[in-house]
Amino acid sequence: MDLIAEFLLRVLGQFQSPSLAFLIGGMLIAAMGSRLTIPDAVYQFAVFMLLMRIGLNGGMTIRESDPADMILPALAAMGIGVGIVLLGLITLARLPKIARADAIATAGLFGAVSASTLGAAMVALEADGIAYEAWVPALYPFMDIPALILAIVLAGMGKAKSDGNTVTPWFIVKDSLRGSALSALLLGLLLGLLTRPERVFETFYDPLFRGLLSVLMLVMGIEAWQRLSELRRVAHWYAVYAFIAPITHGLIAFGVGYLLHQATGFSPGGVVLLALLAASSSDISGPPTLRAGIPEANPSAYIGASTSVGTPIAIGVCIPLFIALAEVVFTLP
User: Fold this and answer.
1) What domain range includes position 148?
2) Are 141 and 182 in contact (CB under 8 A)?
3) Domain of 262: which CATH number?
4) 202 CB-near residues (< 8 Å, 6+ apart)
5) pLDDT 10s digits, 73-100
6) Cα–Cα distance between 211 and 98 in angstroms, integer?
7) Could you tell me the pTM of the whole model?
8) Alpha helices in the chain (DSSP H)
9) Is 286 part of a structural domain of the chain?
10) For the chain, what is the domain count?
11) Is 37 contained in some domain?
């Protein structure tokens, strides 16, 4: 009982995180009918800064570390992304009143990765003094791209396109790599790996990171509340899936991360970040990619499920949950 009480206290303590406060604040003012809006240009700049900071930091660390350390975690991330899509295919797609294309698109979005959740998780870990390998955020594309590819391939299998064209895996790879999210992340990784950006990182990207993340969380909170109306138009199974999936996917990835910890010494913070990558659902690159790759799917289903339920659960529940779980499992101070 003492262990359970300690665990619950640690979960509640995580809700004092500034990132969660801005997310909840955004939802509250939207619920009150506030007309506050954040210009799209500001939002896009915040996303760019977030991903460039993550990429630069990861690239600089990879340059100073052994790339062999990433092999097993990268393979694990790929397997988790693919597994999430397949899990959605055998669960959500078989529920009543659920269109197969909508279910696969939803699973694909939940198999992909949210940059905002990743950023919030990194801030939470740093605030708690939980160390992680700086290259762990670079696992983002290893989970993101395979999940999107598999979702589009599954949706397209056996379905004739009205225009006679089919979407190939190579098309979605190219389209994902050209997307704003992965482009910024990969650019940061390459610059951090091949150049010496330490001065600009320390004086520009790193100091602005937390402030811009708070803006991003505020926008996500406002949009989450607004998307609830879209979710009401489709089957309620999507809300159930979006509530359960982040926790389930995160627990699976936490288990995989624990095995990596035992086998390779993967850090507790790395285990938490891997779990939160899996718990997140794409809010930037995924929606436009799936709109193009699975045009027959209903965006109200997969985007509504992700934005209105999945992302708040990932940030508001999964971040404190998995940090608290790591503190107990790894006996962190």
Assistant:
1) 43-329
2) yes
3) 1.20.1530
4) none
5) 999 999 999 999 999 999 998 888 788 8
6) 40
7) 0.78
8) 2-14, 18-31, 40-64, 71-90, 100-111, 115-127, 140-156, 169-178, 180-194, 198-200, 206-231, 237-264, 268-279, 286-293, 299-304, 311-313, 319-329
9) yes
10) 1
11) no
Asked if 330 contacts 254 with a C-beta cutoff of 8 angstroms, the reply is no
CA distance 55 to 77: 17
Which of 221, 208, 232, 214 has its CA nearest to residue 283?
Answer: 221
Q: Quick one: how far is CA 237 from the chain centroid?
A: 21
Distance CA 82, CA 139 (A): 14
- Of residues 148, 221, 136, the one with CA closest to residue 178: 148
Please give the distance of CA 134 from its chain centroid, rounded to a whole number: 17
Q: Mind giving me the DSSP string for 63-110?
A: HHS-GGGGHHHHHHHHHHHHHHHHHHHHTGGGSTT--HHHHHHHHHHH
Residue 250 in domain:
yes
pLDDT tens digit sequence for 233-268: 656 888 899 999 999 999 999 999 999 999 999 999
Position 24 in a domain: no
- Rounded distance, CA 197 to CA 58, Å? 12
Nearest to 18 by CA among 217, 192, 182: 217
